[in-house]
């Protein structure tokens, strides 16, 4: 366990120490988030580029503690493409098409390095389903690009994305250990350390944002390690494990896509209909919303861990109980909000 502890501490320390330096760099090059529309929650300009500190912390652990296998090199090179893309976007605001091309390029680097979904567990029986090459490549591209963007879309409140990334990567760390994926475990715990090292500067009231640099990097890396550490498991129900681990950003993104299609709006168009916006509109403050979503992410992460070493029947029970618990919590929030409204109107 020594290497995992070292990976966490190194990533945490590097991220924590470099964040103030990145903040100065953001001001120097003009990478500033100015609140110029109704979607923005903050009221004053905040520097972006905080993701560079998360990147520095994570890469320090990877470069020093992991052997330079094809997979590790692919993750590092793909991450460099994503971070460069993020820096340019935080500075110049790139178009959605340009970012998509960059994300696909980074995903192809992963695929060429050997990180791809070649097979999945059979959800209708025992064993696994081997995929044809074109299906494997297409599915991997869809997963990597999709998860890369889910973290970006949920990065709307101080500390939300960094905290979710910490919870998700810690869950993947445990799942990776259970599946004997030790290299993936080192990367997962490094992400956890780097995210936690950045969080003191990013929690409400935030002194710096991770920007697209951090959000896309975290999404990209989480998508890569979830392929290696969670998707490739022979247990049928395990096919839902990475979806549960990344449940909050994935479901928020899915609902956003459905909402925009129903409203006949472009899928890539930003709006104020995300889960955190809806909770804010119910009268909760930023910290309350962030802690609620932390709680949901934690429940889903623990559920994914339990499913990883449970039988099929137990896994289904765990999944059902987790979803019922979240629905119960949502109902309690609604009741509390209605009671608060009733008290205010008296």
From TrEMBL:
GO MF term set: metal ion binding; phosphotransferase activity, for other substituted phosphate groups
Q: Name one Pfam family in it.
A: Glycos_transf_4
Give TM regions.
Answer: 6-34, 46-66, 72-88, 100-117, 129-147, 159-176, 182-201, 213-231, 237-258, 289-309, 315-331
| Membrane topology designation | Multi-pass membrane protein
Q: Name one GO biological process term.
A: cell wall organization
Q: Which UniProt keywords apply?
A: Cell membrane, Magnesium, Membrane, Metal-binding, Transferase, Transmembrane, Transmembrane helix
Which cofactors, by name? Answer: Mg(2+)
Q: Name one GO cellular component term.
A: plasma membrane
User: Residues that bind Mg(2+), according to the entry?
Assistant: 152, 212
Give its localization. Answer: Cell membrane
**What is the name attached to this protein's record?**
Undecaprenyl/decaprenyl-phosphate alpha-N-acetylglucosaminyl 1-phosphate transferase
Q: What is the lineage of its organism?
A: Bacteria, Bacillati, Bacillota, Clostridia, Thermoanaerobacterales
């Amino acid at each position: 366990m020594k290497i995992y502890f070292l990976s966490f501490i190194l990533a945490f320390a590097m991220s924590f120490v470099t964040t103030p330096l990145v903040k100065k760099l953001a001001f120097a090059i003009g990478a500033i988030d100015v609140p110029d529309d109704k979607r923005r929650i903050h009221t004053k300009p905040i520097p972006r580029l905080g993701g560079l500190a998360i990147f520095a912390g994570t890469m320090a652990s990877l470069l020093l503690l992991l052997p330079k296998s094809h997979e590790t090199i692919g993750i590092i090179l793909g991450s460099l493409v994503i971070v460069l893309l993020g820096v340019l976007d935080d500075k110049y605001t790139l178009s959605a098409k340009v970012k998509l091309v960059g994300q696909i390029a980074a995903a192809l680097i992963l695929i060429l390095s050997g990180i791809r979904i070649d097979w999945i567990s059979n959800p209708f029986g025992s064993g696994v389903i081997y995929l044809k090459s074109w299906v494997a490549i297409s599915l991997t591209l869809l997963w990597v690009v999709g998860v890369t963007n889910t973290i970006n879309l949920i990065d709307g409140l101080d500390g939300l994305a960094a905290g979710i990334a910490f919870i998700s990567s810690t869950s993947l760390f445990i799942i990776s250990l259970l599946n004997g994926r030790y290299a993936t475990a080192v990367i997962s715990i490094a992400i956890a350390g780097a995210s936690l090292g950045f969080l003191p500067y990013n929690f409400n009231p935030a002194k710096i944002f991770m920007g697209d640099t951090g959000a896309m990097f975290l999404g990209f890396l989480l998508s890569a390690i979830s392929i290696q550490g969670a998707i490739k498991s022979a247990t049928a129900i395990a096919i839902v494990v990475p979806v549960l681990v990344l449940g909050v950003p994935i479901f928020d993104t899915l609902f956003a896509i459905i909402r925009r299609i129903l409203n006949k709006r472009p899928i890539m168009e930003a709006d104020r209909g995300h889960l955190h916006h809806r909770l804010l509109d119910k009268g909760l403050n930023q910290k309350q919303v962030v802690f609620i979503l932390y709680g949901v992410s934690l429940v889903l992460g623990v559920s994914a861990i339990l499913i990883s070493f449970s039988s099929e029947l137990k896994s289904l029970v765990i999944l059902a109980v987790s979803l019922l618990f979240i629905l119960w919590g949502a109902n309690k929030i609604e009741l509390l909000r209605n009671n608060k409204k009733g008290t205010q109107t008296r």
